[in-house]
Amino acid sequence: MKITDAQLKEIYAHAKESYPHECCGFLLGHFEAGGQVRRVRRAANQNTERTDRFVIAPEEFAQAQFAADDAELDIIGIYHSHPDWPPIPSQTDMDSAWDEVFYLITSVHEGRPLNTNIWRLARSGPRRFEQVSLEILDENELKDTE
Ligand SMILES: [Zn+2]
């Protein structure tokens, strides 16, 4: 999956602000060519009690889908942070995952975003996540691919 340096910084800023809770949001873009993020859209984490999971309200999904349709994009991914935990999907992440969607997880250690992994449900075999490689582009490289 491809993301720009600026988009990743938006996610890191959100993760930092939300610490010690998880942040969450949408990645709008195109599934073609291995997935290309065009826009990062924040969502509110409805779960304010626990620090190890996130819940996005159905209305926010609907609004994100509307915004994506409007811009001729798809919701290609969901991002969230793991405060003081590695960027590896939890059982909760696994239980709520959808096919085809990219799951971007940023690990935040003591308030500082550290590293990011991308995951997607395996297309065959038992239900499990597979790691997807992440390509970080600068804005100029993005223009070249359009
Ligand atoms: Zn998680």
Q: What is the N-to-C order of secondary-structure elements (H for helix, E for strand)?
A: EHEEHEHEEEEH
> What is the CATH third-level topology name?
Cytidine Deaminase, domain 2
The proportion of strand residues reads 35-45%
User: Count the helices. How many?
Assistant: 4
Number of DSSP strand runs: 8
Secondary structure: helix percent: 25-40%
Sheet bearing the most strands, described?
A: 6 strands, mixed
- Poorly predicted regions: none
Task: Give the distinct bound molecules.
Answer: zinc ion
Can you tell me the number of structural domains?
1
**The CATH C-level class name:** Alpha Beta
CATH architecture: 3-Layer(aba) Sandwich
Task: Compute the CA-based radius of gyration.
Answer: 14 Å
Bulk shape: globular
Kindly report how far apart the N and C termini lie.
Answer: 15 Å
What do the pLDDT scores average to? 94
Question: Can you walk me through this structure?
Answer:
The structure is a single chain. This protein has 146 residues and is of the alpha/beta class. The protein has a single domain, classed as Cytidine Deaminase, domain 2 (3-Layer(aba) Sandwich). The chain is 27% helix and 36% strand. Strand 2 and strand 3 form a beta hairpin. The radius of gyration is 14 Å and the shape is globular. The chain starts with a strand and ends with a helix. The mean pLDDT is 94. The chain binds zinc ion. The site of zinc ion (ZN) has 6 residues, from strand 4. The site of zinc ion has 6 residues, from strand 4.
